[in-house]
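Posting for a labmate who doesn't have an account.
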Amino acid sequence: MQRPIDSNLRMASTTGRLATAALWSLLLFTGPVRAQVAEAPVTEEIGSLPDTVAIGAEEQAPEPYPESAMDTESGEADAEAAETETGATGRGELPKARNMPLDEPITPVTVVEPATAEEPETGRNLVLLGTEVPPRTSTRLAWAPTQSFEGIYIATPVLVVNGVEPGPTLCLTAALHGDELNGIETVRRVLYNLDPGKLKGAVIGVPIVNLQGFHSGSRYLSDRRDLNRFFPGDPNGSSASRLAYSFFNELVAHCSALVDLHTGSFFRTNLPQLRGDLSNPRVVDLTKGFGSTVVVHSEGTSGTLRRSAVEAGIPAVTLEAGAPSVLDEESVSHSVKGIRTLLNHLGMTTRFSLWGDPEPVYYNSVWQRAPVGGIVFSRVTLGQSVRKGDLLGTVTNPITNVRTRIVSSYDGRIIGMALNQVVQPGFATHHIGIAAPRGQLSPTGAPPPGDVAAETTAGSDDGDNGSGVIAVPTPSPTAPVAPEDSHAQTLGQTEEEDEELEED
């Protein structure tokens, strides 16, 4: 009777050993736990326990990272190898950005060998977001503010092209409002068509600053705040203020000039135009580089990226083009051409081409408003010149069929307008740029006496075919003021002026 029992015990012991051996063989190829598994003893004595318990105990895998394994020589060696692979030497050296062909975004990322003696790197290394970008390099980095849910926030892509020679650092930002798409496409086209081997200086492009709003198709952040009202930000403030602080200090602070791209807001569209504080000579000089583009004087709302950059000593303008939530090829093409002309004006590229006739500079602009609520139908187009008394559009009551006219209160040009839509009384429908009267022009930039046309189309003084910029404006008491009985308002004239009427 004893022999069958011994036979069963021997079979159970053999089965347990085989299962244990198979388990250890499998674990030996799992990587990080190799050292601790190799030292683990194999349980030999299982005869004193029931078969099921013995086998189950053998199948329990050891904990993946016991403290004892971290103290072993092999653990230290693995840690050193990991540091070597990631470039972390422990000596404060920055990782180098990989060079990648931005004009071929579908191809795999390739690492380019450092330049040889035959092609010396004469430019400068650009340190951005904790990464060193060598000369003659195109790469993608990532900006990730730290005040978000761990593991949930998606880093914002940052495109960088560092040229072969020293020069300015031009920053292009888009989609501070998540529903403004034209700027996204503009930044993409500019950055992906720059050759670092023919560029002086660097171009930093952030196609989508407000990823939260972009994902939801909204102008605002997820907390319904307008990111472009919180610059330069506060590290201890609200979520929007912390985002603004991080973006401003980690990216904008590296710029020598800034172009912030926007569109109209709330189903309004804009003629391609520059907004800038023309009382600042450095901003004036920046506007001269955009070719045939309308320029509108605007100091900018407090808290906007443009105004905060200027206050920090960085010349900045806003490039307005098109409407939100749609891609307009004509607006994008104009914006791309304007930025490429600016790169040439700044001496960063050598491409040169004449671009049409100079456009006017408007030191004054007004919004015509809907006198009643209803459905707006415009009768004018962007860029069209209008005279006082001209019909701009109508507002129709869909129930009573009563139609109310919107009439221009000034001579000027349509530089922005509402798309056909349902509006409330007082909704801003048509933005009219008004030519500056002679008394408002700066003596340094005023046209010759009697040259009326030149007052609004004065070319630049450096022979670049002009952007129509008059050097420095001087405020004048003769500036037009909207009459009380009209439905026009000068920007900033009333305390309750809609903030969305500003471009940024």
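Reply:
Got it, the structure tokens are right above this. Residues 21-91, 105-118, 441-500 have pLDDT under 50 and may be disordered.
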